[in-house]
Amino acid sequence: MFLTHGLDIDCNELVELVTAYLDDALDPDTRRRFTDHLDLCDGCDTYVEQMRQTIRLTGALAADDLAPDLRETLLTAFRGWKNGTAPPA
Amino acid sequence: MRALRGGDEQAFAELVGRLTPSMLAVAAGRVPGRTVAEEVVQETWLAVLTGLDRFEGRSSLRTWVFGILLNIARTRGARERRSVPFSSAFPTDQAGPQAQAGPTVDPGRFHPPGTPWSGHWTAVPQPWELPENALLSHEIRTRLRAALDALPPGQRAVVHLRDVQGLDAAEVCAILDLEPGNQRVLLHRGRARIRQALEDYIHEEPA
Ligand SMILES: [Zn+2]
Question: For chain B, what are the domain ranges?
Answer without folding.
Answer: 2-89, 101-202
